[in-house]
Amino acid sequence: MNLPNNRAISLIVAAACAGLIAIAIFYFQNHLGLEPCYLCITQRVFVIAVGVIFLMAGLHNPAAKGQKIYAGLATLAAFGGSFFSIKQLWLQGLPEDKVPACGPPVDYLFDAFSATDAISMLLRGDGNCAEVQWQLLGISMPGWVLVSFVGLAAVGLFQLLRK
After folding, report:
1. Is there a domain that residue 123 lies in?
2. Which residues lie on this side of the membrane: Periplasmic (predicted)?
3. Using one digit for the tens of pLDDT, what is the confidence trace for 76-134?
4. Is residue 153 domain-resident?
5. Cβ(35)–Cβ(29) under 8 Å?
């Protein structure tokens, strides 16, 4: 069985990441009116990072050593995004009395605080991140994003270990 080459896989995964972001913005945010919380935005950044790494790998089409570097970076980014998906799932599972307070909108964070402070707040999450706004088959949005990150990490590992 002939598997697609590294370039084709990289470009397909980059397109899949672009599709995930498009669905998040155009369907969930614009059509359904769901506002992304701090951790949602952080997860989007990691999906974009994975997509950009795979796009660079596809456009560059490096030799084996370069492909392994791109695959390793993409896998690390997918693991990073997984961490924030798990963190949001943990917040969603907290009892109501343990949920942290809700913070200000993201626009305000970057207007009122330094970039490092605003990013730190984004990475911590807040009470808004504990709210389950949407589910499919009993799994909330960060659960599905985690499934996506696991798939992206699996492709990255496949590319990394591929001969």
Report:
1. no
2. 28-45
3. 999 999 999 998 888 888 788 777 766 777 777 778 888 788 778 777 776 777 777 87
4. yes
5. yes
